[in-house]
Batch of 2 targets.
Target 1
Amino acid sequence: MVDIYRTTYDEKGAGHYVAPRLAYAYLNIGLHDASRQIVDELMKESPNDWRTWFLHWWLRGTEEQDRKSRRVNSSPHQPRPTMISPALTHRVFPTAEAASEALADEIAELIRSRAAEGRQVVLGLATGSTPIRLYAALVHLHRQGLSFANVVTFNLDEYLGIERSHEESYWNFMHFSLFDHIDVPPENIHIPPGTTPDEELDAACAAYENAIREAGGIDLQVLGIGHNGHIGFNEPSSPPNTRTRVMQLNERTIRDAANAFGGAENVPKRAITMGVGTILDARRIVLLAFGESKAGIVQRALTEEISANLPATYLQNHPDVTLYLDQAAAPR
Ligand code: PGA
């Protein structure tokens, strides 16, 4: 099977794109070993590729399903709720996987309880490497019977100036890692339109805000956090009352995305993002942060005074936010 992947890779010269799709196809028809071989190869060759990670976590879920249910019931590691900022609760989980599964379970519960009442649930969704395990866990839950038919989604942001079909567009990311595998109605999916011409941007941003309002507001917003403290693409110096708008990406954000785009010069310089105010309007917010590299910014978000220099500190003003952290990202 790896030979087939090699041939595809060499012939098309597009391994980063083709190989994950091939692995996904194998996974879907039950050829788990073949998928695993490709994913293991990809992990060695391009460890920073989010598609590889998504497939890895999805496969792991499949492989460990039985063991997982035993472990969850008898886990000696209970998450520890701790308070630093009086407003910001954080929970430290043994692993990023455990944190992602806990959030997936919370989302599933919300979806089921709303479905039982005949109501929709509105989810705010994030992109980046952090929520990949969450989406893999949601796909697993769907395969075990969870329906997303009553779910409406709004993504936080999208790069400006790249097509939906671009490998790194958030539209592509969300479909590859979640929407293509669940039964959310396509008309319920909202992602800021990254190909909007400049003269139509104001109207597109207003329409996005309007769509969120008309859906009844966001029930649960999933967030990551940038190394510079951004939430969505609300870069440092973003005021707290901002709504969906165009944002110039900050140098650190561009540097973080450079690998994925094959160089900083290829990273779009602008994005459409929900504003800080849009995010803070969500009824509940869960911010995920994993890994050593996030520990410093998480500590600052929890302890520093609220300031535009660190947009994540605005969360301290929200009545229902929880940070889900793994051990490495937890404050010391
Ligand atoms: P990451 O990005 O999940 O890729 O670290 C998070 C963010 O920038 O919000």
Note: The longest strand covers residues 284-289.
Target 2
Amino acid sequence: MDVRRFPDGEKYLRVVDDVKNENVAVIQSIHHTPDELLFEYLLLVDTLKDLGASRVTAFIPYFAYARQDERFKPGEALSFRTVTKLMESVGTDEIYTIDMHQHRVLKSSEVFKIPSHNLSAMPLLADYVKKTGEVQKPLVIGPDTEAEQWAKIAADRLGTDYDVFEKKRLGDDHVEVRPRRSNAKGRDVLIVDDIISTGGTIVEASKILLSQGANKVAVACTHPILAPGALEKIQNARVVSVVGTDTVPSPISRVSVAPLIASEIKKAGMK
Ligand code: R5P
């Protein structure tokens, strides 16, 4: 497609190919400039449907606004719900997300009316960690109870054990993390999470693990959002390596989710 801006800042979008009666897959990660990318997505899908596409399947590797799924203070916008409504309203037929932040909403069917699937990049990340050999038979740690779903997948893939910590968020960039059962003494550790934003969660978790006597701590996450200074903060916390996927482009996006998306496109019989 051809996308540019008019001199007044409005967006221009043109679908160049003939999509009439086609089954179309749209791949659009909605990350650092979410409002802009979301609007581009809405323009695109509405146009595809208007041009006669028979079906539009969306792949949204990083789904912005998923964290605002609850009214934490009276009067707050339920942004997650607004975004899903907009996506449906332009004619999205089916949606695939990757490790979408589903802490309070546990099933994507609770927010989407259209068929939805949440894929996981954790097997790809675990394979990458195994290949680098950076950590051996690591204890896999999810830094909060919601991360258990990812810790379990990574540990199963690596043939090892896992545990989760408990986390209390005290502010946008301030968290308190507490250990539960496991002890990292003498172990290599792999912390896994869906998102690294300010890096606060990883820093607090690695402090605990190193104070317990862990040999070393490595980190893997699906969406390296990385707010300014986050990577430096993590590196200063004596973490030996940190890797993310390309759902969000970043200096640590070394694992591609392309095979995950390609395999679903193939399964769905799209061209
Ligand atoms: C939230 O609960 C997520 O799973 C992540 O743990 C969180 O977004 C990480 O944020 P930060 O890097 O700012 O601590």
Note: The CA atoms of residues 33 and 64 lie 9 Å apart.
